[in-house]
């Protein structure tokens, strides 16, 4: 996802709006078993404030994840805000880490892909659920307890404690 800020370079204290729409990078969700169901839509406003460009915007998409309890597929909408700081070339006084800002190329192009992917990834829950009251799957028979009732033995006794049951 690239934007061009050439028109803002010569006009300080101005802003420009961008609307971008691209398919998501499948490698981003590969490790968690997810996929993009809709394109990634980015709306961004960038303002030139001296030598620095400040941007704020939103990222919208829908991804498919796996419920961490019942292993069903779920559609998870992503709607999050993100912020970027863009500089022309490298700053002389680098008091910030390189990850704090994006560097504009000589032709005015800026690649937002990393910042957008970071915003998406930070929105994904650690343990996604299909619903808050998901009952999961039975550890004994493997039935999805949301869809049917499990008929397994309810009381599971740890075999290490079974000898105590015989004491009287």
Summed over residues and divided by their number, the pLDDT gives a mean of 86
- Overall shape: elongated
Structural class: mainly beta
Order of helices and strands: EHEHEEEEEEH
- Count of discrete alpha- or pi-helical segments spanning 4 or more residues: 3
Using only CA atoms, what is the Rg? Answer: 25 Å
pLDDT < 50 runs, ≥5 residues: none
Strand content: 35-45%
- What's the story with the biggest beta sheet? 6 strands, mixed
Share of helix, binned: 10-25%
Quick one: how many beta strands?
8
User: Ends: how far apart?
Assistant: 73 Å
Give a concise summary:
Helix content is 11%, strand content 36%. With 168 residues, it is mainly β. The strands form 2 sheets. Strands 2, 3, 4, 5, 6 and 7 form a 6-stranded mixed sheet that branches. Strands 1-8 form a two-stranded antiparallel sheet.
Question: What can you see in these coordinates?
Answer:
Helices cover 11% and strands 36% of the residues. The protein contains three helices and eight strands; from the N terminus they run E-H-E-H-E-E-E-E-E-E-H. The protein has helices at residues 6-9, 26-29, 113-123; strands spanning 2-4, 15-22, 35-36, 40-49, 52-66, 73-88, 102-104, 109-111. The strands form two sheets. Strands 2, 3, 4, 5, 6 and 7 form a six-stranded mixed β-sheet that branches. A two-stranded antiparallel sheet has the order 1-8. The chain is elongated and about 90 Å long. The termini are far apart.
Task: Based on the model shown, name its key terms.
single chain; 168 residues; mainly beta; 6-stranded mixed sheet; 3 helices; 8 strands; 11% helix; 36% strand; elongated
